[in-house]
Design goal:
Two copies of one chain form a homodimer. By secondary structure, chain A is α+β, with helices and mostly antiparallel strands. Chain A has one domain: Winged helix-like DNA-binding domain superfamily/Winged helix DNA-binding domain (Arc Repressor Mutant, subunit A, Orthogonal Bundle), CATH 1.10.10. Helices cover 57% and strands 17% of the residues of chain A. A three-stranded antiparallel sheet of chain A has the order 1-3-2. The longest helix of chain A has 22 residues. Chains A and B meet through α2, β1, α3 and α5 of A and α2, β1, α3 and α5 of B.
């Protein structure tokens, strides 16, 4: 048996994780999304969502901006160009893997 | 903004993890694969590969069998029916996500 290439090399752990992937998908489709919307969407606690957002922000895939609306602070997330690029790479890796099985 | 459904609900953490996904892909294509082949393929240490294989085995997605060939012990991995089903579900979830962006 000769070694064939690793079948899943295109998956980056930061983007690939399902909750972070879900967040990036939503941000790629929307202009921006706020913390409570993302929280409802992915069904995480404040702490867990905050941790995933930090991972994405530290990797330069997403930016957070805080604003005050009325008297309430809101946190808005937007995807960066790098975030879109990494999401595209993830989707391309998924497409490759799926087509491998469709042949 | 109304809550839309979570965009990545079909991803199961056990199957989705890139190294475990790679192992299942190879096992779905081959009849069986031995420990050292899988190790070369995914580029993991013995300990890390062993842990991923345990996770897959505990979830009933893969079976390990030990044999002695010559004087050397070999460990063979095969995918179970449940493993194929879960891999199919993962690929279907990937297909859905990719097609969401192709529209």
């Amino acid at each position: 048996m000769t070694a064939e290439p690793h079948p899943t090399p295109g998956f980056d752990e930061i983007v690939h994780q399902p909750n972070r992937l879900g967040i990036l998908v939503v941000l790629a489709e929307a202009d921006r999304a706020d913390f409570s919307y993302l929280k409802r969407l992915v069904g995480l606690t404040d702490g867990n969502l905050g941790r995933h957002l930090s991972v994405l922000e530290d990797a330069g895939l997403m930016e957070l901006r805080k604003s005050i609306e009325g008297n309430r602070p809101r946190t808005w997330a937007t995807i960066t160009r790098r975030g879109r690029k990494c999401l595209d790479a993830e989707l391309a890796a998924m497409r490759d893997l799926v087509s491998r099985f469709e042949q």
